[in-house]
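2024-03-11 09:14:02 INFO worker-7 job=invfold-0412 stage=load source=structure_tokens
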């Protein structure tokens, strides 16, 4: 047997072992130096620079099954890459075998049943474009380059979530490759415990190769976009956001951000590089009502940029993409909030004014609505009492700035924690956040997740994640 002596470094993978796996796959198998290896092994967060020994670019479920069985047989660490957008870089580990799902991006829409079937390598934009052809939409996230797999198995929320719930709430069935290399279906009717765990429990229990989503009628146009003001208006604008969202219809979502103005063409040149407060709005209900909500924001006056208008839902879904390029360095700290407050806003503004990177921001995301209407044990996602999320998003370009930027985020987070529900979103946890932070993400659901892990992955094959140990 040409097994590595210790699962880990690339030097331990013999040419014979590499060729053995390559001969069993439909898709390409890559090693360091091969064309495509660097693109496959790198992820969105440039701080993550781990290198798997081999990368299998899966063309279908058979390649996934082969990869799982091969890794187990030869004692290889196994990691799985969907979109690669996770802040902690969970898609990649040093040594061992990566299964890159990026070639599996098929989407099939049944407009009569209002259902979409999507392969695990899809990005949000893949699903948005196919569903919008039929005037339908899946409940997904905020950045179109995010992978559906990590988003969904971690819970997932976006502009439509106050109306339709967590992304994981809209999944009706999943196709899963288990730790022993078998293919099963997970739904309310079949392997219900696995289905429960995969809706929020991340990649702990198996590799989902297909998601079936319930769709809702939407678009093609919505009222959406952004408006920005100078940062001296921040307290006023944040209070307006709080006031409006207190009794807003579930079709309305308002995200606010405190940051330095990027050199975007929709922002006045004189504020580029200066502090601003901006709101990103999406109204997914009747257009006439959306126009009335837009008018309320437009009447504030003094804006230094305004692209709030009728637009396609697809364009809304990619509105923030330019702020999140692959390869930049990212570090987040976040908390669920029971409410917004003047005191919290003051802390947020204080830290926003201390931002030294042109890319960092303090963001407030709305929750509530349908996200909170199901019981906490409906699925693994938990934390259904949250009304808001604060995300302190540090983002910068140079490695030599790591220490200062990370400390900025941690300092802002320390001041935000007293306002927290005590919970946090699993998909927003950074690389070092484990233990009590995983407990905070799952709360009372964690023990049930441990039991599911013991049944479906007792040997902890799927451990390169926010790991729930059996």
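2024-03-11 09:14:09 INFO worker-7 stage=emit residues=470
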């Amino acid at each position: 047997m040409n097994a590595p002596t210790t699962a880990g470094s690339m030097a331990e993978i013999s040419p014979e072992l590499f060729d053995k796996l390559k001969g069993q796959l439909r898709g390409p198998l890559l090693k360091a130096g091969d064309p495509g290896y660097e693109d496959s092994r790198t992820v969105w967060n440039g701080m993550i620079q781990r290198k798997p020994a081999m990368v299998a670019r899966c063309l279908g479920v058979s390649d996934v099954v082969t990869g799982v069985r091969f890794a187990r047989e030869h004692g290889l660490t196994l990691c799985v890459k969907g979109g690669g957008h996770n802040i902690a870089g969970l898609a990649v580990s040093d040594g061992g075998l990566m299964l890159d799902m990026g070639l599996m991006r098929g989407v099939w829409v049944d407009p009569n049943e209002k259902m979409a079937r999507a392969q695990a390598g899809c990005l949000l934009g893949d699903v948005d474009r196919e569903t919008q052809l039929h005037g339908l939409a899946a409940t997904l996230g905020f950045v179109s380059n995010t992978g559906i797999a990590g988003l969904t198995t971690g819970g997932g929320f976006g502009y439509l979530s106050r109306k339709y719930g967590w992304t994981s709430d809209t999944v009706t069935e999943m196709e899963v490759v288990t730790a022993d290399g078998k293919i099963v279906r997970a739904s309310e009717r079949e392997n219900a415990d696995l289905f429960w765990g995969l809706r929020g429990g991340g990649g702990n229990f198996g590799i989902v190769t297909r998601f079936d989503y319930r769709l809702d009628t939407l678009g093609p146009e919505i009222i959406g976009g952004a408006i920005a003001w100078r940062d001296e208006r921040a307290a006023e604008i944040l209070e307006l956001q709080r006031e409006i969202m207190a009794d807003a219809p579930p079709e309305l979502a308002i995200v606010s951000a405190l940051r330095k103005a990027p050199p975007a063409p929709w922002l006045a040149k004189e504020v580029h590089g200066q502090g601003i407060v901006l709101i990103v709005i999406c109204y997914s209900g009747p257009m006439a009502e959306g126009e009335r909500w837009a008018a309320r924001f437009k009447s504030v006056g003094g804006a230094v940029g305004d692209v709030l208008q009728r637009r396609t839902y697809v364009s809304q879904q990619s509105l923030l993409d330019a702020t999140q390029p692959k390869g930049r360095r990212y570090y987040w700290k976040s908390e669920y909030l029971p409410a917004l407050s003047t005191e919290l806003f003051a802390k947020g503004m204080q830290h926003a004014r201390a931002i030294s990177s042109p890319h960092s921001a303090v963001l407030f995301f709305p929750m509530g609505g349908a996200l909170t209407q199901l019981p906490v044990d409906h699925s693994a996602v938990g934390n259904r009492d949250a009304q808001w999320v604060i995300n302190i998003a540090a983002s910068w370009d140079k490695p030599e700035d790591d220490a200062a930027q990370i400390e900025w985020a941690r300092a802002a987070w320390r001041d935000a924690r007293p306002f927290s529900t005590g919970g946090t979103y699993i998909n927003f946890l950074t690389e070092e956040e484990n233990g009590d932070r995983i407990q905070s993400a799952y709360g009372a659901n964690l023990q049930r997740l441990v039991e599911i892990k013991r049944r479906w992955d007792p040997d902890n094959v799927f451990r390169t994640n926010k790991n729930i140990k059996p």
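2024-03-11 09:14:09 INFO worker-7 stage=report msg="The chain has a mean pLDDT of 95."
2024-03-11 09:14:10 INFO worker-7 job finished
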